Amino acid sequence: MERVMAFDTTFTAENRAPNTPGGQRFDNEIGVAWTVNMLQEVKSFIIQTFSLSPEKERDLISWYLEDFDGAAYSSNNEIHVSAGWLNGLAQPGDSSTLKFELQGVMYHEMTHNWQNNLGDYGGDQYFRGIIEGIATWMELAAGFGIDPKVKGGNWYDGYTNTAYFLDWIQSTKIDSFVNRLNQRMGLLQWNNDFFLQITGTDVDTLWSEYQASF
Ligand SMILES: [Zn+2]
Q1: Could you give the number of structural domains in the chain?
Q2: Which one of 27, 38, 66, 190 is least enclosed by Cβ atoms within 10 Å?
């Protein structure tokens, strides 16, 4: 399912917190050039994973290291990363772990820029769970560590719980499941029956089977 990379994206990165401990670490151990290159690499993985049309085009993504409480978030064509959060990702001087952890979270944030999202994020907990689950699944699929798999919860919890469920469907039911799901999310408003339409089994039954697999 290869496809030609039709669209180029320009990435910019800026340290807006140079006087904080995290900002100083960014300058000393990471740097703008590495960050821009890393973001291109992450984008390549994401658009290869989302190879089925419709595809999204992004001309520009601006990345900012800033001084705020929290970890990282995406907004329009911007990615914001907390300097304090970055500083806590690895022991002082362990720049390889620092870069690895940062890159892992960028799969989640960048997925939000390329994933299809016809649905009501604020009002539909199922849609919101899938949006966040796919973003964390991308991190898992790329080989970066996410929190361990645990039994229980709901398929629409989002993040780790949903990510492992999606991965289980893809490995046991149908290949390229997440790609197929993302395609549908660009053609039609979110519907829980997307699971049934793609796999032949409804989502509650899939979740029960998945829970029984632990
Ligand atoms: Zn997210």
Answers
A1: 2
A2: 27
The SS3 of residue 11 is strand
Determine the distance separating the centroid of ligand 1 and the alpha carbon of 10, expressed in angstroms. Answer: 22
Task: Give 152 Cα–ligand 1 centroid separation in angstroms.
Answer: 21
Residues with CB under 5 A from ligand 1 (ion): 132, 135
- Cα of 133 from ligand 1 centre, angstroms: 8
Q: Are residues 26 and 97 in the same domain?
A: yes
Please write the tens of the pLDDT for every residue from 20-53: 999 999 999 999 999 999 999 999 999 999 999 8
In a domain, 97, yes or no: yes
Q: Are residues 107 and 134 in the same domain?
A: no
Full DSSP string of 58-118: -SEEEEEEE--SSSEEEETTEEEEEHHHHHTSS-TT-HHHHHHHHHHHHHHHHHHHHS---
What tens digit of pLDDT does each residue of 67-80 get?
A: 999 999 999 899 99
**Domain-terminating residue out of 71, 93, 114:** 114
Expressed in angstroms and rounded, the spacing between residue 30 Cα and the centre of ligand 1 is 23
1 inside domain = no
One domain, residues 15 and 97: yes
Secondary structure class of 15 (helix, strand, coil): strand
* Residue where one domain finishes, among candidates 114, 138, 159: 114
